[in-house]
Each structure stands twice: as structure tokens, then as C-alpha cells.
Amino acid sequence: MKRKVLCTSTGCIEYAPERYMKEHDIGIIRVHVLFNGKDYLEGLDLNPVEFYEQLETLTDVKNNLPKTAMPTRGEICAHYEKAIADGYDEIFVVAISSGLGGTYNLLRLVAEDYKDKIKINVIDARITCFAEGLLAIKISELIKKGVDSETILKEIEWIKARMKLIGFDAKLDYIIYNGRLKGGKAFFGKMLSVCPVIHFSPEGECVPLCSVRTQKKALAKTCELMKEIIGDRKPEDYILFHLFTGTSVLDKLIEIEKDYGIETNHERVIMSPVSGCHNGPWLAGYIYMPIRREDEPLD
Fold it and tell me: Which long-range contacts (CB under 8 A, 24 or more apart) does 255-264 make?
């Protein structure tokens, strides 16, 4: 059986170390970024470093906020049609969390139109950025090993239930103007210089986990929470790396994490511009993905 893996561009596979693109033939379904009067295709004609540099100097954020748009039905169909034309029998599609928009549902609905032509498994990552991309890479690795599709889907669900994205926003502008922090909380948050520590809920929504005063306390809280997540798990049994939009905040996180004994074991990966539209250029944190041990049951 010939099986194809697709991932939405928010999975950051193209921003991760080059080895992943070389070793895995993963198709990228591109999400749109609307900014400065232009429609960009993420990962194709929008450089994330340059994008965040522009956001850092953006004046009047409220009225110049970058926006995002789902892939079109035609763009999705093109990927499904190509897989069929290339002789694939089954497709795995890893999609940006359904809690962040309608892309997952659109991918699923379009897949229904192809149910008599090819089997399509549309997976709600319930997370985004390279956490999402790692799920697609894991599927590709398991396919290469000849693992059956049912077991692959179970393995991905096992990882999803334990994968974490945690970080903090040094400034509230983008979170407020995108509606993630509203009303009195938004007003007092800006007035009191609150820094929210964010994470993905079990429902796949990016929400504040807690809020603290000052960047230094937010950095410490992020490290404290990450240390709790890792627990006594050995480094060979997980992947841990830095997630960031701008490097200024990341440098501070790297400095303070030494006090908590946190050591990453994978290269840093910049956040997807689509996700960064909502969080802004001052985010830093971690992505943690456990690797299932033989003594850990899949079911």
C-alpha cells in the first residue's frame, strides 16, 4: 500500500532543520497570511524572520493587524488529486488545531468528496507550529517502517494526549486585538504589564494558563511549568526545543532556564507566521513531545 503524508504549513516543517524535508516527502497545504495589502502563502513567499522583524516595528498595531485565511477548496483538492494521480492508496493529513480556525474542518469536508477514490485520514493536531509538524514526521517514519494505518493513528493519538506547547507573550497587543484577551482583563493587563503564560488546552485552543507580573516572573513560571511537565522522564524519551517569534525574548528564556536545569535536545524552531499573527513578535517558549517507550501501552 502506498501512503502519502500532508501537513498544513503551520506545522513549520519548512522552518525546521533541513534534514526533515530531505528525509520525508511531506506535502505542504499552505495557509494564507494577509499583510500590508498582500496575500502571502505561508512558507512559500513569506520569510518568518523578516515577518517578525516587521511586526516588531509596526505602528498602530490595532489598525494594521496581519490576518490569516484558510487554504481554498481548490488548493486542497489539488493536493488530493495529485496523490491520486501519483498512485497513492491512502492519505494522512495533519491539520492545524481546530481550536484555531476552520482549516481542519474544511480539509475534512473536502476529503468527503474523495471517499470513493482514496482513503483520507484528516487528523486534528489540537496544537500547532512544529509540534504539528512532528506529528506528520512521525507518521512518515512509521509508514517507512511498514506500520499499519490503524496503529499509526493510535500512536499519533497517544502523542497528542501528551504533547505540550507552553510559552509566554512579553507584550499583550496582538493577543488583545485578536480577541484572546478581552474587556477588563485586557485593560488591566496592559496597565499592570501582565505577561500571560500560554498553552494549548485539551480542546486545542491557545489560551492563557496563568498570568504574572513582569517578564522575569513569566520566564521563571514558564521554566517551572516545563520542569513539571518533563518530570523524571529521561531525555532520550522526549523531544524538547525552543519555540519563538522574536529572538530578544528567547535569549532571556535561555539564560534563566539554566537555573531550572532545563536542557533542550533539539534545534530551536521559529513559530509559524500564521500563528504569530495572533501572538505577535515577542513570544518564547517550549514544545515538548514524548517518545513512547516499549513499557508504555499504546491503548
Answer: 256/216, 256/219, 256/220, 256/223, 257/223, 257/226, 259/223, 260/223, 260/224, 260/226, 260/227, 261/227, 262/223, 262/226, 262/227, 262/230, 262/286, 263/235, 264/240
